Structure of HTH tetR-type domain-containing protein:
Amino acid sequence: MAHVPAAERRPQLIKAAIDFMTREGVAAGSTRAIAAELGVAQATVHYTFGTKEGLYRAVMEQLTQDLITQVEQAAPADAGFEETAGTLAAALWRTVREQPASHQLLAELTHFALRTPALSEALESHYRRVTEVTARLVTEAAARTGQPLAQPAETIARFFLAGFDGLTMQHLSLPDEESEHTCLQAFVSAVVAMAGGRLELVSVPAS
């Protein structure tokens, strides 16, 4: 078999791990199983990532980056603060509706990392990153629209992410399209009110 450079093999292994664990679950994601998914030797996985935890860390980073990229691309350039919040929430919710397996895998990895000391840094990095990106989007929207923030952007970001995690878990466990959209609108309204906006129902585009 022709030699494949590590820089090229790494994304192939990450994709194979995501595909396998999405289908079989995190508990089944051994280095042997993931190597078999791609059709390479188990030693290739260890050479590329060092340990199984190293591979899991890379998977978490990839899933996080994929979600962040989709939301950043949806950020409006000239909308008001409330409309921006609604648009960003709708974009993120669309990933839940269209890619539930990715969110389920990320949730599984999160709970696995809570009990795995070798992944504690990866878990902290994941939450720190999504919080920083969310806070930046809130700050940019506020600055662009002249909206003074009643709370620090990071506090608003943490509140938003905490509520969104709950809505996501409800969707994965007991989906209800009509109820979910109503809850999403009410939730985004609460986020806008917390930021210092008007206390009224914010329109969230349907997914």
